[in-house]
Amino acid sequence: MTERKRIESWLTDMDGVLVHEGVPVPGAPEFVNKMKSSGKPFLILTNNSIYTPRDLQARLNRVGFDVPEQSIWTSALATAQFLADQRPGGTAYVIGEAGLTTAMHAAGYVLTEFDPDYVVLGETRTYSFEAITKAIRLIDSGAKFICTNPDATGPSNEGALPAAGSVAAMVSKATGVDPYFIGKPNPVMMRSALNTIEAHSESTAMIGDRMDTDVLCGLEAGLETILVLTGISDRAESERYPYRPSRVVDSVADLIDEI
């Protein structure tokens, strides 16, 4: 394997890496504190588009993390940035919550249901059949279809919940149009994060708990990839994929001395 440059910046997933089922992973707050004190650029990533960075900052703070708002990067922010680059000042019909609508407004987009340039589908706690029907009809009329992330399900205390990827599949079935997904594993998510902290792929590591999103996304963006075993994927599962992480560690606690 080609020897990589020293890690000068860090990207890390949130759920399964820093927190698991709402509880901090042992050593994770210390890991975040070490990243902050080192002065090295870092971002905490999430495919969840429901919350704004400020919301997520408050949620993390409540369980013991002291994270700056600007150190959180969501699929909603990546989606808004992508659309602002593709069609500045465009219009969109959005299904989602504050994390997505706030990001779209900040990117200069007008949210409308009248002949929009795009239909943008994100996460929401309560998907409306009426809103989904409107999205289908707008796509049939020519609106381009964007989805914040391909996750089929999301976690809850009661079990799995249908997420954006599942609803996108329903819209696709009805329209015959597949969405363009922005979040992981699309390397667009990684590139937008790298640009945000002015980091280079050759000297950046991506830490994640999923082979099919975090590791794949980091790999395709040219980053060093580190799989932690505190979330979804275990060591045996990682061997079943046709690609491999740069390395596997038990948790982010094992990386503190590297920062």
Topology:
Blueprint: E1 9-13, E2 19-20, E3 23-24, H1 28-38, E4 42-46, H2 53-62, E5 72-74, H3 75-86, E6 91-95, H4 98-106, E7 110-111, E8 118-121, H5 129-140, E9 144-147, E10 153-154, E11 161-162, H6 164-175, E12 180-181, H7 187-196, E13 204-208, H8 211-220, E14 224-228, H9 235-238, E15 247-249
Parallel strand pairs: 1-4, 1-13, 4-5, 6-7, 6-8, 8-9, 9-12, 13-14, 14-15
Antiparallel strand pairs: 2-3, 10-11
Describe the protein in words.
This protein has 259 residues and is an alpha/beta fold. It has 2 domains: 9-47 and 184-258, HAD superfamily/HAD-like (Rossmann fold), CATH 3.40.50.1000; 86-181, HAD superfamily/HAD-like (Rossmann fold). The protein has 9 helices and 15 strands. The protein has helices at 28-38, 53-62, 75-86, 98-106, 129-140, 164-175, 187-196, 211-220, 235-238, and strands at 9-13, 19-20, 23-24, 42-46, 72-74, 91-95, 110-111, 118-121, 144-147, 153-154, 161-162, 180-181, 204-208, 224-228, 247-249. Strands 5-4-1-13-14-15 form a 6-stranded parallel beta sheet, sandwiched between helices. A 5-stranded parallel beta sheet has the order 7-6-8-9-12, with helices on both faces. A two-stranded antiparallel ribbon has the order 2-3. The chain is globular. The model has no long low-confidence stretch (mean pLDDT 94).
What key phrases describe this protein's structure?
globular, Rossmann fold, 9 helices, 259 residues, 5-stranded parallel beta sheet, 2 domains, alpha/beta, 15 strands
**What oligomeric state best describes the polypeptide chains here?**
single chain
Structural class: alpha/beta
What percent of the residues sit in helical stretches (DSSP H or I)? 25-40%
Under CATH, the homologous superfamily of the largest domain reads HAD superfamily/HAD-like
Shape: globular
N- and C-termini, Cα separation: 22 Å
Largest sheet, strands/sense/barrel: 6 strands, parallel
Order of SSEs? EEEHEHEHEHEEHEEEHEHEHEHE
